[in-house]
Amino acid sequence: MIELTIAEANKGLKEKKFSSTELTQSYLDHIEKTDGTLNSYVTVTKEVALEQAKKADEKGSFENPLEGIPMNLKDIICTKDIKTTACSKILEDFTPPYNADVTQRLLDSGAVLLGKANTDQFAMGSSSESSYFGVTKNPWNTEYVAGGSSGGPAASVAADQCVFAIGTDTGGSIRQPASLCSCVGFKVSYGRVPRYGVISYASSFDTIGPLTKTMEDAALVLNVIAGKSENDSTTPDQPVPDYTNFLKEDLTGMIIGVPKEYFEGVEQETIDIINANIEVIKKLGANVIEVSLPLTKYAIPTYYLLVKSEASTNMARYDGVKYGHTADDAKELLDIYMKSRSEGFGEEVKRTIMLGTYALSAGYYDAFYLKAAKVRALMQQEFEEVFLKCDALITPTSPFPAFKIGAKTDDPLAMYAADTLTVPAGICGLPSASLPAGFSKEGLPIGMQIIANQYKEEKVIQVGHVFQKATDWHTKKPTL
After folding, report:
1. Which of 95, 137, 152, 415 could form a disulfide with 142 if both were Cys (CB 3.0 to 4.6 A apart)?
2. What is the tens place of the pLDDT at every residue in 212-222?
3. Domain segments of the chain: what residues?
4. Catalytic sites, residue numbers
5. Residue 108 half-sphere exposure, CB side, CA atoms within 13 Å?
């Protein structure tokens, strides 16, 4: 039962093959059995989940595809009366008085909340190793990282600890762990899903999206969570299509671009796997062409200058006064600020604040932040020109498969390099997704990334769904 997709589980519920309560209990049992090893969850909401499942069963229609379906939320998404910690000591006891928009939309659809999933502190990281609650381990090999920052959601989907999960993606935080754990991770266009009630990392980059077992499931979730919100002025006032209408049979007439720069510095084994899958894409009817995005080499410095600057501003609200951790022995106001933040923030968050504050400081703003903002605009223009020639792009998701726990913790620049292929879509606000595409010789998953133009999620869905109909990588399961 726990291996079902959303579509399969919905069919089973409608046909009364099992109840939502039985489905939910099977996931709770599996979490109890496996999470001591994986550490995907930081909070399990057993009573809440069973109560929500009972309500779904009493209603009994299951007309909404998500009704009665067990899920989890990354622990930076606010949940009323349920702890939301950002996996940081500074918020370890914070209980929000309201739901995030995405939480409310899912609950209104009848989805069942199993709990809150592990993440790098404040979503700052590429391995989930910076979580205050410990590292999430990769279900394919527990000596390796699950990726980050949505490592908990990705590992839980891959390990069948939920039917689907919701993560956030600033520069790769859904797609990179999806690649490392072998599930579908979908980053939407900036503004496509409202950010209200989601703890901010970098406000002009942050997006919210699903981690699922199939692209079809991602379309079902997007139908519920996408769309304008009165609480978020960055959501566009344009209709959301029914994404399931784009679950087509082939790719006839589509032009797929392959940017040559996305294969530079990538491990050869990953290149070979992606190239083999590009051949599959050709056989499915697409016309594949080579394209060039030369500004890709500036993506990492551009991204990290901008996000660290925005994050340093966002982190100012955690002052030890209004909410969150307050140092016990602090007496003076400055003492409260310094001791509470020193005790509450982890090393990566502190590094972020220092880098961002430096880049925004007098004398350095023009040299760093402003220059990076100009490069961002040029990168957006470069993507626009490429999308005049093609419908979507195919690239590797990560330059390499999962790495061993602790392998990069002492080298922040090596850790940042894990995001090389995902940050351009984050910089430019583009929809993109990672799909399971194969395995390394060591048996570690490798993902393929699909990128489309802004608010063209349906292009990503079409390519991804047709690819999955022709391959079986997404059906492979880790042994726990």
Report:
1. 137
2. 999 999 999 99
3. 6-257+386-475
4. 74, 149, 173
5. 10
